[in-house]
Amino acid sequence: MRRSEVLADESIVCLQKALTHLREIWGLIGIPEEQRLQRTEVVKKHIKEDKEITVLQLEKDLRTQVELMRKQKKERKQELKLLQEQDQELREILCMPPCDVDSTSVPTLEELNLFRQRVATLRETKESRHEQFVNIKRQIILCMEELEHTPDTSFERDVVCEDESAFCLSLENIATLQKLLKQLEVKKSQNEAECEGLRAQIRELWDRLQIPEEEREPVAAIMTGSKTKIRNALKLEVDRLEELKMQNIKQVIETIRVELAQFWDQCFYSQEQRQAFAPYYSEDYTENLLHLHDVEVIRLRNYYEAHKELFEGVQKWEESWKLFLEFERKASDPSRFTNRGGNLLKEEKERAKLQKTLPKLEEELKARIEHWEQENSTAFVVNGQKFMEYVTEQWELHRLEKERAKQERQLKNKRQTETEMLYGSAPRTPSKRPGQTPNKCGKVRKMNTTTMSTATPNSSIRPVFGGSVYRSPMSRLPPSGSKSVVTSLCSGKKTPRAARLRANKENLDLNGSILSARTVKGFQI
């Protein structure tokens, strides 16, 4: 065989080996079938190039590609190893199971990208849980300090004493942390509530026993906080005051009765409701009587707090109603027109405003009370009766009072009219003149000419509106029919006929049976 043929056969064998080796590399680095076909086509084109290329050059090119692929394989496997280490570390911190990855094969670019995303997600989870852990740990330490609590379990010691980086940030541990914090907060709240209750008892006993301020000041240090030593000090102070209360039981009961009376007023208790608590009127100051008063004042306090909103609404109505009645009283007072400071106009504006707001307030209270009565299945009582009945009664009493006042004014005017018709208007004091005796009765009003029955001497005139029969003040007429002398109606003294006629400008014409005089307030005789 010729050497050229031998060389050609060797070249073909080398080419086949090179292609086989390329396929192995493609398989190791995970090149899919489609890319293998493409790469094979590229090799084929290189072999079939129009340009003449020697087998040695082809071999060199193939070796260059092989070296490049080997370098890519090494880099991918190094990155995969680094990602695996990071993934394992994060999973240990988060207490998650390890991820099973084939480290012998060369990962594809897509597989490496997915691995990177998974590691980034684990890192974000770790940061979030660590921040949550640090926040909860800080609150737990504060609660333990406030409660003076020493960690007594391994988990509590791990939380408080161990290094933060060594704590396992699993979901279970985070949930356990939250549970522990909640337990501590509940206990802290209970202690605070207990301390506040003890302080309320102390203040109440101070007030009931009338403890002076200088004796209260030393206790001010324990009136805040809820630590164990403070709670114990509060209990001791309550015990001391309770003992003092029993030594001054009468004074305490009297103080409670004042408080009871205040609650009765705030709850609008009727007299019957107040009398229903018989111990209030007992004078047998015993421990049992004190207990009954304590129970009753607690019941009333709870009752008021439960209905405080309604009672405040009723109180607002009561205040508005009193103001309304005051405006009504001022409106009927004639002296209000002598006002010079502008208060009259201001009062009228407030009165008009109140007349609008008062019915609106009543409607609002009515709706709220009806809703409350439906929820509680009982009547809302004010001064022993339903509120709306109470409001209606107040309006009716106001109407009757106005009617009574009106009738009194009419009766007063009627009596004044009768008096003026009989005796003339109210007397006026004329100016004094030298040598004259002043006429104290004032002018006698003229009367319109009115036809009457024939007058007889000393005849009587009956008042228009009834009443007693009065003798006529006129003297007996003389037979000649001349004018008679008229006597004074108020002083009882006689004045000269001519002077009286000039002073009063009266003209009594008794010729025949005609009597002339001025009409008094629109009424004629």
UniProtKB/TrEMBL annotation:
Keywords, sorted A to Z: Coiled coil
Gene Ontology molecular-function annotations: microtubule binding
Disordered: annotated span: 406-444
GO BP terms, alphabetized: microtubule cytoskeleton organization
Coiled coil: 59-93, 174-201
Compositionally biased spans, kind Basic and acidic residues: 406-418
Xref: InterPro entries: MAP65_Ase1_PRC1
Alphabetized Pfam families for the sequence: MAP65_ASE1
Source taxon at top rank: Eukaryota
Protein's name according to its UniProt entry: Protein regulator of cytokinesis 1
Organism: Rattus norvegicus
Gene name in the database record: Prc1
